[in-house]
Amino acid sequence: MLSFKDAVRKRPGMYFGDIDHNAVNHVIYELVANVVDLFLAGRATTLKVDVSECEIIVIDDGPGFPFPVEDSAHNLVERYLTHHHDKPTADDHAPHIHVLGGGLGLAAVNAVSEKLTIESSNGAWRWRQVFGKGDVLAPLESFRYDGPSGSSIKFTLDPSVFHNRLPDFFQLRKAMFELAHLYSGLIVEFDGERYVSKQGLMELAYLMWSGPKWAFNPKMFRFKGQTEDVGFEVAAIGDGGSPPCYKSWVNGCETEEHGAHVNGLRQALNYAGWAPDIALISIVMHDPKFAGPVKSRFCNRRVKSLIAEALADPLKMFKSKSEDN
């Protein structure tokens, strides 16, 4: 029976899809999603991605990888990089998001990398360890350190697996730009550009809106809500009279066929008597069972009711005020 490492290396298409530019992006998204998880947990503020023909680097200012401080302690990072887990996340953290699907984990990224170097710090210690082709290539280096925490993952994909494919730069840029708007406040740096959005989905909705950009103060609505296990953001713009164009996400995955979250938003809009041109909704489920990639349609009756009830009064008040103005 093939090990996970050998299975990924022999049949990479089963894990990353067709081995083309999008598959390279998929590998990058696996690392990017982990940084967004840290941001949602309040443990990181910045994601930086640098791409060249030679290597790819993903950097964050989070708390650092859980490398051992004592030489005799178990190295969890080695396990994360060399063993596949059958849980949504290796350390059971939640919430967990995805970027354009994904969800394979660090072991899969290591399996298809010719060389993968992690440099990480918790503010008191700094570590460096080299992996590649699914294995540990060098022992852990550690030393005392007095400086900021954070991590850097620098890797080169194995040409025997990816045949020297390069990332789809424009699709990658689009994904990074969208991330900054799905998670307002997250600082995303990509190829020398810096994206950060204070208004989140509202700014994205405005960019998607086909109404006259010169229009003075078009109708714009934004709302963020949070319960114990569900966080959500809604944005809507315009008043053209046609049925709204909806776009939706669950834990970072676009739900092209929408589902319960959009049905809840639609119900609240109908109750308020408003048909915006564009309506966006993104929800983050904290329940670990939603840590895997959500399919194209989201089914959850409780979320439909939660969204409809949370938006009913704010939308009604917004509609009333906009009519008064």
From TrEMBL:
Gene3D superfamilies the UniProt entry points to: 3.30.230.10, Histidine kinase-like ATPase, C-terminal domain
InterPro entries for this protein: HATPase_C_sf (IPR036890), HATPase_dom (IPR003594), Ribosomal_Su5_D2-typ_SF (IPR020568), Ribsml_uS5_D2-typ_fold_subgr (IPR014721)
Coiled coil: none
Residue ranges occupied by any Histidine kinase/HSP90-like ATPase domain in the UniProt entry: 19-161
Enzyme class of the recorded protein, top EC level: isomerase
Pfam families per record: HATPase_c
Catalytic reaction(s) noted: ATP-dependent breakage, passage and rejoining of double-stranded DNA
Keyword DNA-binding among UniProt keywords: yes
Enzyme Commission number(s) of this protein: 5.6.2.2
Single GO MF annotation: DNA topoisomerase type II (double strand cut, ATP-hydrolyzing) activity
Sorted UniProt keywords: ATP-binding, DNA-binding, Isomerase, Nucleotide-binding, Topoisomerase
Family recorded in the similarity comment: Belongs to the type II topoisomerase GyrB family.
PANTHER family reported in the protein's UniProt record: DNA GYRASE SUBUNIT B, MITOCHONDRIAL, DNA GYRASE/TOPOISOMERASE SUBUNIT B
The name this protein goes by in its record: DNA topoisomerase (ATP-hydrolyzing)
Organism: Hahella chejuensis (strain KCTC 2396)
